[in-house]
Amino acid sequence: MKRFALIGHPVAGSLSPRLFSAAYDGRYPYDLVDDPSFEVCWERFLSHYDGINVTAPFKMDAFREVDVRSETALLSGAVNLVVRENGLLRGYNTDVDGVVRSVRECGIPVSRALVVGAGGAGRAAVTAARILGCEVIVANRTFAKAETLAKATGALAIPLPEIASAGADLVLYTLPAALPEMPDWHDAVVLEANYKTPCLPGRPCRLYLSGHRWLLHQAVAGYALFTGEEPDTEKMAEMITLSL
User: Fold this and answer.
1) What is the pLDDT, as a whole number, of residue 154?
2) For residue 75, what pLDDT band results from cuts at 50, 70 and 90?
3) How confident is the model at residue 4 (pLDDT cuts 50, 70, 90)?
4) Angle at CA of residue 127, ends 122 and 131, nearest 5°
5) 10-28 pLDDT, tens per residue?
6) What is the 8-class DSSP label of residue 154?
7) Distance between CA 167 and CA 171 in Å, rounded?
8) CB under 8 Å to 55, separation ≥6 — which residues?
9) What's the distance, CA 79 to chain centroid?
10) Tell me, what's the pLDDT at 244?
C-alpha cells in the first residue's frame, strides 16, 4: 500500500492528515514527519513514503533535492509536493494552484498584488499573482530577501514599512504572524496563508480569504498526483468546515 506524509517543522496541529483521509475515505496512510532538520525529514521520506507534502521551512530545500521539477516549481523556486515516479523524484508546487483558484473563485478582478513574505509560500504567491495577470510587489522583514525574490521573478521589492501605500488590490500574506504595525487594506482582497493561527481575520479589507481555501485548493491539485485518483473534494471541504 502506498504511504504519504507531510514534512516540516513544526507541523503539529496540521489538518493535512484529516484532509487526506477525507479525500480517499482513509484508504491511504498519511503521517506527520516533524523535525527541525531537513535532512532527517528527507531521509524519512526516502525510506518510508511514496510521496510527501512539504511545508515550512523546507520548500526550497526540497526544490534542490528533486530530479524533475514542474513548471510552477521552476517558476517559484520552491517545491511543496514530491512524488516517486519511475525511479525519479518529481517536485511540484501546488501552492501556486491554491492561490490562483482561491482568488479566481471570489470573482473579484485584481491587477496589483502585494506579497508579504519571501519564503516558500511567498515564492508561490508571486508566481500565482503573475498567472493572475498582476503587477507584483514583494515585502519582507528582511529587505534583502525581498530584493532577491523580486529580482528572480521580475517583481518590485519595497521596504516593509511602505506596504500600506503599495496600492495593491490583492494582498497575499504569507508570514506566520502579524506585523507590529499592521496596515488596513480597505480596497484589497486579502488571502492569508496561515490557517492554524491566522492574524488577519476581522481587519478592514474588501474581502478576506481564509488560508483554509488555499489549503483546500492546493490539496485538490496535489492529491491526484500522489494516488492517480481524483480526491473527494466535497468531503474535503466538509472536513475543513467542521474544523473551523
Assistant:
1) 94
2) very high
3) very high
4) 140
5) 999 999 999 999 999 999 9
6) T
7) 10
8) 6, 7, 8, 11, 14, 80
9) 10
10) 79
Report which DSSP code applies to 3.
-
Written as nine digits, the cell of 135 is 503587477
> What kind and span of H or E run contains 233?
helix 233-243
Q: How far apart are the first and last CA of the chain?
A: 31
What's the Rg (C-alpha) of the chain?
17
Residue with cell 487594506: 185
Residue type, 36: P
Cα–chain-centroid distance for residue 159? 23
Q: What share of the chain is helix, strand, coil (3-state, %, to 5)?
A: 40, 25, 35
Determine the 3-state secondary structure of 216 from DSSP: helix
**C-alpha cell of residue 165:** 501605500
Answer yes or no: is pLDDT of 181 > 90.
Answer: no
Report the 10 Å Cβ neighbour count for 151. Answer: 11
Q: What is the DSSP string of 9-52?
A: SS-TT-SHHHHHHHHHTT-S-EEEEE-S-HHHHHHHHHHH-SEE
Catalytic annotation, residues: 59
Please, are residues 209 and 227 in contact by the beta-carbon 8 Å criterion? no
The grid coordinates listed for 58 are: 523546507
Helices (H) and strands (E) in the chain — how many of each? 9, 12
CA dist., res. 7 & res. 82, Å (int): 11
Confidence of residue 209 (pLDDT cuts 50, 70, 90): very high
The Cα 231–Cα 212 span in angstroms is: 17
